[in-house]
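Before relying on records like the one below, remember that each one covers exactly one chain. Contacts with other chains, cofactors or solvent are not represented anywhere in the record.
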Amino acid sequence: MISSVLSRLWSNATHNLIPRREKKDNQKPLLKSLASLNARQWAEFWTGWLAWTCDAIDFYSVSLSVTNLATQFRRSTTDITRALTLTLLLRSVGAIILGIISDRFGRKIPLTLNLLLIAVLELGAGFVQTYSQFLVLRSLFGIAMGGIWGLAASTSLENLPVETRGLASGVLQEGYAAGTIIAAIIDLFLVPEQSHSWRALFWCAAGLSTLCALIRFCLPESKVFLKAKGYARLREEQLGRKIGSKEKTKIFIRETGKMLRHHWMLCIYGVLLMSGFNFLSHGSQDLFPTFIQSTKGFSSQDAAIMTIIGQCGSIVGGAASGWSSQYIGRRLSMIIFILLGALFIPLWILPNSFSGLSLGAFWIQFGVQGAWGVIPIQLAEMSPPAFRATFPGVVYQIGNMVSSASAQIEATGGEHLKTTVSVPVSTANPTGEKIVPDYGTVQGILIGCVAAFTIIITVFGPEKHGYEFEKHRAAFEEGGGDDDAVMKDDDALDDGEITGRQGNFRSGDETTSEEKAEVEMIENA
């Protein structure tokens, strides 16, 4: 077994890094494929993007408010970053719960409820009066936040043509960067102008999450999920039996167990990959505003502007890497962009000028988040296909849990590693020098080590470039969790049959009056 595993890893690194591009009969050029998308596909994609954007606003509200929160609760920076750690630790719980619900019952209602729960918790965080209350709400927020990414990715990508998924993956993932920019703009222009200070940022985030929930509720269920559901009903009719909702849930649990027994090594690999990527992301972002203010001596407004500039690099890098992955492969694109980010570490931490630090922030996020742009489609393609919401979300959030201490590692390292900076002569600093935490050096060492680890993990990993997972059966069907359980072309339902057989399906397994009538007709016949 060990020899076969090592052989497969070596093959991944030496023969499969650049996947073979197989020409399919119905394959279209990218621009033509984009032009063929209908309004529903565009709406589903941008709704998933918006959900992920709102998630980023909600999470990054704490990072932007570390200094204000420390003052409010009379706590150290390390104490405040504990809220970030708890949020990251508990996200895997939400990913498991909501991912399973989504793969079992559909994409629409789970994502809608998830967003509303986040809105309530974010609203409540804006009213807390004590540090303990803040930690409790952010812990609960972590559970709710954990479900968003897997649900948003499946909502956005599974209904798109294969040719567009690389670019779409990059744009989707950088919804996080867009969310960070929106949060920074609110923090820059709204927070200083009213008496509620940091609380206004949390309230705005709650309102945006509520808006996204309403938009998702107004859109129909995923067509791919409905098609798999309709195919399962067709097979039931062919077998002459009707399987109820409870029995389907039991089947789903059995198929999940079978998937875990068969793909346990893939699960471990996914966690290792996402641990590296999450350390890259959080290690380069979460304490960056504090680094700019405490070590470099800039104002919170300057830190917010630099954050915006950095996240602009994220958006450009994510789109570029997602597009390139469609041609040179997912893993090779990820490796190239990680290397680019690592090259710009000195420019990110060494300058003392606003322009130099801003340029460094742009390019390191171009590399780090550029590599991240491939992650949604890479995880979707390598996932056990019937578990496209559960597997990506869970390995993503367990990786988040592993990396949850990144902000605290950097904060603690900065407290122990000091540097001296020049400041204006004053009563507090008569020598014109001040000893401050050396967050820059700590961040540089952490990101450099993590970049090397992530590249190694990526090189030896699997890749299913261009895999058509939308043709797979659902896991609530007996045998649907198997890797080869695809819908046969002669049995698959087209859009008209979906509408005719299923009416306007929502989430769940409720039987409509039309379906009951159809079953009665079949039984009478």
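Confidence is low (pLDDT under 50) at residues 496-525.
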